[in-house]
Amino acid sequence: MSELTEPELAAVADRLAAAGVASAGPLTSDLIAGGRSNLTYAITDGRTRWVLRTPPRAGRTASAHDVAREHRVTAALMSSGVPVADAVLLCADETVLGVPFTVSGFVDGAAIRTQADLAAYDDQRLGTVVESLLETLAALHRVDHVAAGLESFGRPDGYAQRQLRRWSGQWETVGEERLGALAREVVARLGAVVPEQRATSVVHGDYRVDNTLLGRPGTAGEDRVAAVVDWELSTIGDPVADVAMMCAYRHPSFDLVVGAPSAWTSPRLPEVEELAGGYERLGGVALDQWDFHHALACFKVAVISAGIDHRRRAGSGSGAGFDTAGEAVEPYLELALRQLG
Asked: Which of 106, 188, 275, 326 has the smallest count of CB within 10 Å of its CB?
């Protein structure tokens, strides 16, 4: 079940009131997004709109779909200059909706998910969008996470080694044996060249255009990032890895993962080298040991793809991307090897 019932919405209103946010009337809701990730609802009392996020009500794992994590990081970043939605409420009491949930301010922005969405943007406007995306990521990486209250949000060092250990372990669970030798070669070669971490910052973990909202056309901030969303993978880590993940998603095989021609793979967007260079030019950290980080990011996308396909083969997933994600695994493994030379 994904819809919110009237009694559930009344309970949400009670929690908002207890947090000092009074409703002007009964709440109603519309499901904005659902599926493999968290469920996102627009809720309103007829006067004010908010966004409510919950994990899936079935099939979630202990470490995934962490809405509490999203709430904590966005609350910490609200005064940082990084555009985020206002963090309004975190309810960890699962008796209310059966899952934890968060409420944030509603950002009236444009969501760019598909290449069809990009058709509304001419090349000049699209250039503005890309520059704002890179400026925003660079600004995130300049935030003093200790001063922002995120000192315990994640371990500050050894990020690459931990990521390699985590994702190689995940491969052992979800990877197909026919690609096992290729995956093991990628892991071995990555493990032999893990670099020293030279910078530490808040890491979004899943940054690309469709995990932001852009300003509405005709507004003062049109074509610029109005809010960065989907923070469930955020942590403290190596900012170079964030840039590398953003660039790994540019490969055309990512369309197989999402099940449609995605906005971020569009040939109208800059190639990887231009994106990385633009990030540095706009104030980002030096992209030291880039080939390693880009290779690790490609391996992570391969494992993500394998995980989606694993769920399909187990009969627990269907819909866009589930039937095609498995086809992306081998290209991403091969891309990781090419990055390692």
From this structure: 188
Q: Cα torsion at 338, 181, 320, 247 (round to 10°)? A: -20
Alpha-carbon distances of 140 from 77, 80, 113, 255, 337, rounded to whole Å: 9, 8, 22, 27, 30
162-186 pLDDT, tens digit per residue, is: 999 999 999 999 999 999 999 999 9
- Tokens 């990055």 belong to residue: 339
Tell me, what amino acid is at 314?
A
Closest CA to 311 of 63, 59, 65: 59
Q: Which CATH class is domain 6-105?
A: alpha beta
For every residue of 122-182, which 3-state class applies, written as one string? Answer: CHHHHHHHHHHHHHHHHHHHHCCCCCCCCCCCCCCCCHHHHHHHHHHHHHHHHCCHHHHHH
**236, 244 Cβ separation under 8 angstroms:** no
User: pTM value?
Assistant: 0.92
| CATH number belonging to the domain at 115-339, selected among 3.30.499.10, 3.90.1200.10, 2.60.40.10, 3.30.750.24 | 3.90.1200.10
CA pair distance 135, 284, nearest whole angstrom:
8
The rounded distance, in Å, linking the Cα atoms of 100 and 60 is 12
Mean pLDDT within 107-133: 95
Per-domain residue ranges for the chain? Answer: 6-105, 115-339
**Residue located via tokens 């960890």:** 92
For residue 177, the one-letter residue type is E
User: Which residues pair with residue 50 across a beta bridge?
Assistant: 43, 105
3-state secondary structure of 52: strand
Torsion of CA 285, 77, 271, 299, to 10 degrees: 90
